[in-house]
Amino acid sequence: MNLCRVFVRNMSQGKKWQPLKKVGVVGVPFEKGQKKYGVSVAPAALRSAGLLEALREIDDLDVKDYGDIDTSSPELDLHVKNMDHLSMVSNCNKRLSEQVTQVLKDDRIAVTIGGDHSIGVGTVDGHQKVNKDMILIWVDAHADINTNKTSDSGSVHGMPVALLVKEFSHYWPYLPTFEWQDLVFSIKSLGYIGLRSVDQYERLAIQKFNVPCCAMEDIDENGIKNSIQYILKTLDPTNSRPIHVSFDIDSVDALEAPSTGTAVRGGLTLREAIKMMEIIHATGRLRAIDLVEINPAIGNENDRKRTIDAGISVLKAALGFSRRGTAPRGVPDLPVQDNTTKR
Ligand SMILES: NC(=[NH2+])NCCC[C@H](N)C(=O)O
Questions:
Q1: Is 250 in the pocket of ligand 1 (CB under 6 A)?
Q2: Angle (nearest 5°) at CA 137 between 136 and 143
Q3: S-S: 68 plus which of 27, 97, 162, 216, CB 3.0-4.6 Å?
Q4: β-pairing verdict for 286-292 and 62-68
Q5: What pLDDT, in 10s, does the model give residues 152-178?
Q6: Atom 5 of ligand 1, nearest CA residue
């Protein structure tokens, strides 16, 4: 083979991405972004279900636990109109952003376990400070792009995307305590997977900014592989940008992940979620992943266990676990059993 040609090809492809073999786990026991009790116990529940051990079983993966974020708030709890617990959300996200930045500077993939989805503000802010060119894949039944003027619930877990993107800055009133946030992330770097419960104004926002989006009907139509590849290619045609996945467990069908606060039926199968994560892992560009909205206080013991198992399986797939193990790809030649011979 002409080595020179190989060399030139590699050069022209630019930086060669390899999956990072080191991760840092950050827990965020925070639930003030929504109204139900229980999401804040998810980090403890995931840890006691063996999350860290499960990740450590992945070949060569170096797993460091950075512990939990302090979610307390020094000042009086502020509520801006139709926006609950503003200062608590803000303080928690400020600390989380700093921690995620630190994990990435330690050259580890930031694995954040929530907590409700309002914590996506801190994880993306922290990631963006290190990888300015990151793309964000929001995997969710909901678009979470309401402002306090369009939200029906007043819950901030339905607003993190609108808080993050710079194109929305003038849709917000002054938000006291949020001064720490670097408003630099562009909606042009955002894509959605799994949508099936999108509010009226959210739909308009997605259309106005032409956000690439694979709702459940698109996934039915095209399959999960084509869907995630479409999002990745649209956001980053040259395959050269770091990836942040913000994974809401309610993207998965309520039959497979029932313990969550705003479940919507007709979601991703667990296999689809795992397949999507395997594809993202294979890019070598995953640098941060959030797992949010597991609520162990919802449902019975079986629901709780199933939901936590689903969450752990998704993270494992994103970080390189393969059911294939080291076996060769494809269907192996199984020994043919001879049923005709009498023993
Ligand atoms: N991350 C979530 N579970 N979000 C649910 C949001 C539900 C609804 N769209 C709202 O704004 O209140």
A1: yes
A2: 105
A3: 27
A4: unpaired
A5: 999 999 999 999 999 999 999 999 999
A6: 158
